Amino acid sequence: MTDEINVHRRGLMLVLSSPSGAGKTTLSRALIDGDEAITMSVSATTRRPRPGETHGKDYYFLSTEDFGIMLNKGEFLEHAKVFDNYYGTPRQPVEEALNAGQDVLFDIDWQGTQQLDESASEDLVKVFILPPSAYELEKRLNSRAQDSAEVVASRMEKASDEISHYQEYDYIIINENVDKSLAELRSILLAERLKRKRQTGLSDFVKRLRDAL
Q: Which range of residues forms the domain containing residue 12?
């Protein structure tokens, strides 16, 4: 007779950060499209919805007053003010996902990552995506054909500061080839999922196993 293996996994929070143009968004989408056990974090914002955006799917659209109430109650894992609007990650839906064994992917910068590290370090896995060269980064930014030369120059200048925070991350991926980088990202996710600390019920399983020997 085989005993039931009552071991479950607590989800994890996977952060991807990179300078603009390094390929973070492409990797995020590919990872989610190929893995049902990970979902994208949904942020709250005080900005008005854009055409086609859905509350609860693209963002949680909140009034400034409601955002402030949640902030004062400590209901955000991280938050920031961008121009005249506030953005933040609500704690409750993330916690519910983790408890259900669902991983949550965060596409945030190093400042947001620092806040997550302070509020939920045990569940956090931090990955920084680097471009293979400054030339390639500028080439990718220009290939978008959606930004002016001034905007591209500004993004390149900002990239230097963003890259300087690479040492704050657990893993570094140099994104020269998307398929190779995606394989590396999936390997990181698999290894982190198998960590002993994420296996709930493991100690009881091991005890029963040893008692039966």
A: 8-41+102-211
